[in-house]
């Protein structure tokens, strides 16, 4: 139940959900309380305009993604841990499991393995039932990695985890059983601050190896490199709204996990 509520309730506090609630309030109060309706419509418009411009979304994303950027070459470790959330199940018309927008973590893990950063890759992730059946994310990632030439003997699957906390708890059991002391933790850069804190709370010596950066130094410079660009980046864009919501989701996750003592 906690897992379901942790996914459902925050939706009403994200920009699109709040805007929808405000518009419903406006619709209900339009005739009898037009002032209230006007306030609700104004709030909806403000939320959508504020949260969907590139300036705000990029700054919020950067505040998470740039916390664990590599200052030197990534060191060797005893294992590479890849967190789930990177695949789509192999349902028709897909010819097989696909990588989603966070799929860079799977490719990056393969690159680190080929660079001989670690001898094994631990793949952690189950499949939430209300998001579709099918094989676990760990199995999907394993299939993709073997198709990329990574030997199956180098892959260890953990198919039970349904959130980041469970990732850390279940991976810890694998590490203890294999007497592994240090790992490279691979996940999306935005997800890394929360993931790293959770793994460290479990006593795991995890070295952050973030990937899938949405905001780079070049993109930050492009925001205001000319008056035209500065104005265009103030205009609403659905991709910016998605980035803002994803970053806000991480901050909500940090708050909830902190309340539960998982950080």
From TrEMBL:
Annotated protein name in UniProt: DUF218 domain-containing protein
Keyword check for Transmembrane: yes
Membrane-traversing stretches: 12-31, 38-56
GO biological process, one term: peptidoglycan metabolic process
Organism: Tolypothrix tenuis PCC 7101
Superkingdom of origin: Bacteria
Keyword Metal-binding among record annotations: no
Gene3D superfamilies recorded: HUPs
GO-annotated cellular components: plasma membrane
Domain DUF218 residue range list: 78-253
């Amino acid at each position: 139940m906690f897992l379901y509520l942790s996914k459902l309730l925050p939706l009403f506090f994200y920009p699109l959900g709040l805007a929808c609630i405000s518009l419903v309030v406006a619709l209900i109060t339009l005739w009898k309380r037009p002032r209230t309706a006007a306030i609700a419509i104004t709030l909806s418009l403000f939320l959508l305009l504020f949260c969907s411009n590139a300036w705000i979304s990029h700054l919020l994303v950067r505040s998470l993604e740039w916390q664990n950027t590599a200052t030197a070459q990534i060191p060797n470790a005893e294992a590479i841990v890849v967190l789930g959330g990177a695949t789509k199940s192999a349902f028709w018309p897909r010819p097989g499991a696909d990588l989603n927008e966070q799929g860079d973590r799977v490719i990056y893990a393969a690159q680190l393995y080929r660079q001989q950063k670690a001898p094994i890759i631990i793949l952690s992730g189950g499949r939430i039932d209300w998001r579709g059946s099918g094989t676990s994310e760990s199995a999907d990632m394993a299939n993709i990695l073997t198709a990329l030439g990574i030997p199956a003997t180098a892959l260890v699957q953990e198919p039970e985890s349904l959130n980041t906390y469970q990732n850390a708890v279940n991976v810890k059991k694998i590490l203890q059983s294999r007497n592994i002391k240090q790992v490279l933790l691979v996940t999306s850069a935005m997800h890394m601050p929360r993931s790293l804190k959770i793994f460290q709370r479990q006593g795991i010596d995890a070295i952050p190896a973030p990937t899938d950066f949405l905001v780079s130094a070049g993109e930050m410079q492009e925001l205001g490199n000319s008056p035209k660009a500065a104005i265009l980046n103030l205009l609403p864009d659905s991709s910016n709204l998605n980035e803002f919501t994803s970053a806000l989701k991480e901050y909500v996750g940090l708050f909830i996990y902190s309340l539960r003592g998982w950080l």
